[in-house]
Amino acid sequence: MSTPIYPSVSSSRSAAALAWPAALALAAAMGIGRFAFTPVWPLMAQEAGLSLAQGGWLASRGWVYVESPRGNAPVLPPNWQLHREGQAGEVRFALYRHALPLS
After folding, report:
1. pLDDT at residue 71 above 60?
2. Which of 14, 45, 62, 79 could crosslink 50 through cysteines, CB 3.0-4.6 Å?
């Protein structure tokens, strides 16, 4: 008799009960990463030879990746432009770029 590689999940635990620990771990990792790399940014920018103005220019260029059910396009502010889009089965995916007004 062999032991299964993946133990079966108890049917008494709901999907939400299984997802909560993963969501909390992801939030913790993102929070730690956000605050861990903030003090390092000046050193990275200096090593790359970026000026403060160039760093600001990079930070102002935003990108958003969106997945939605096929046939449902998200409503975004008018200053976001569609860069690329595609479909995989019943999922529509799109990459939007923040368009800054010319001044």
Report:
1. yes
2. 45
Q: Are 61 and 46 in contact (CB under 8 A)?
A: no
Residue 46 has which token pair? 């200096």
25 phi, psi to nearest 5 deg: -65, -40
Structure tokens at 65: 């990746």
Q: Which of these, 33, 59, 55, 34, lies nearest to 44 by C-alpha position?
A: 55
The pLDDT tens digits of the residues spanning 4-55 come to: 666 565 555 687 888 888 889 888 888 887 777 777 777 877 887 878 777 7
**96: exposed, middle or buried (C-beta count within 10 Å: 0-12, 13-18, 19+)?**
buried
- How many residues are listed for the chain in this entry? 103
Cβ–Cβ under 8 Å, residues 55 and 43: no
Q: Is 73 within 8 Å of 92 (Cβ atoms)? A: yes
